[in-house]
Amino acid sequence: MMQHEIGFGSLIAAAMLTCHLASVVAAWPRARRNHANIQPAAPIDLTILRPLCGLEPHSKATLRSTFELDARGVRILFCVASANDPIIPLVRDCIAEYPNVNAELLIGSERISANPKLNNLVKGWDRTTSAWVAFVDSNVLLPIDAVTQLRNCWDDRCGMVCSPPIGGLCENFAAELEATFLNGYQARWQLAAARIGTGFAQGKVMFFQRALLTRVGGLGALASDPAEDAAATKVVRAAGLNVRLVDRPFQQPLGSKRLVDVWKRQLRWAQLRRATFPTYFYPEILTSAVLPILLLSVDVSALPVFALPLFISLWYGSEAALIARCGWTQSPRWLLLAFARDALIVPIWLTAIWRNKFEWQGHAMSVDDLGAAS
Asked: How far apart are alpha carbons 338 and 132 in whole angstroms?
């Protein structure tokens, strides 16, 4: 019987599977199901800034979640760039519904960068005097104990606490696909990176001491990169501090999506990662199961018959187990979605290498090779 040697491709596939499993193992202790903290939060001198732009899926629920936080001493500033924005009546209705909550609506925009979110936040930042500040995107659904979760992550070596977005409340296939990107893939890698001390800020939720950002120039310091979370990561690391992530990341209701919008959003994020953290971006192609599956298929004649099915089971089974442990959204067609996601990672990665232009909140932007926005 002719003996076949295991090819180099199979060894690469084995190494990639090892890295994949290591990310699951690293994220595993950080993963917790969402159970609200029943203890009242201690008072905190905190301002929450929420930049708003247009109506989104479940806007009423995400806005109301800010008013229903179990925390005392919190001030909420809603920032809207245009007086004609359709979100404004909804914000005013929520403020009227919760008269005992210290909340204000601020309208206007001051251009300090190419980043429309930062331009929208300037007026809120200028009105902020609290010791603690949190930037929370409009499409984040805050759990009642969000402030407690953020504060509990803080220690002497912490410069910022963030939450990756966890996709939920999906209403169609495209939304489920986006949740598959956000949950078992992006959140897993972010939790794993934070576990080994290389956490990255996530623009969805950023909680920090106001003094840190004030020392380095305020919001202008976050305009040094095309993405404010990348700039925040660099500010924190330059101060010799770490970025922490909450153990129970907050949900982003996705509602109904179009496939083209999922593509555009994932491509934009990839372009920004390439511009801001190229050292971490380029190996991303190795996080897709497509390459190792192809490599194993080439060596199939030299491998046991169960090798490829075992590889697929370990790769996707470990991710599915992590998602189940966390209680994150997992569609009945999750495996199909996970295959589709991994297939898309490759063209997204390739396109992000050569394309600089993208659109964000209706604003045309570009990213050059040095990570500057224009």
From this structure: 38
Asked if 244 and 160 touch (Cβ cutoff 8 Å), the reply is: yes
**Contact, 344 vs 203, CB < 8 A?**
no
DSSP lists the bridge partners of residue 78 as 50, 105
**Closest CA relative to residue 345, chosen from 273, 295, 297, 241:** 273
- Where along the chain do the CATH 3.90.550.10 domains lie? 42-256
Q: Where are the beta strands (DSSP E) in the chain?
A: 46-52, 74-80, 102-107, 132-136, 158-162, 166-170, 205-209, 242-245, 251-255, 357-360, 363-366
Q: Would you tell me which CATH number, out of the four given (1.10.3210.10, 3.40.50.300, 3.90.550.10, 3.40.50.261), belongs to the domain 42-256?
A: 3.90.550.10
Single-letter amino acid code for the residue at 144: I
pLDDT, tens digit (0-9, with 9 covering 90-100), for 352-363:
998 877 766 666
pLDDT in tens, 5-27: 567 778 899 999 999 999 999 99
Give the DSSP H or E segment for 290. Answer: helix 290-298
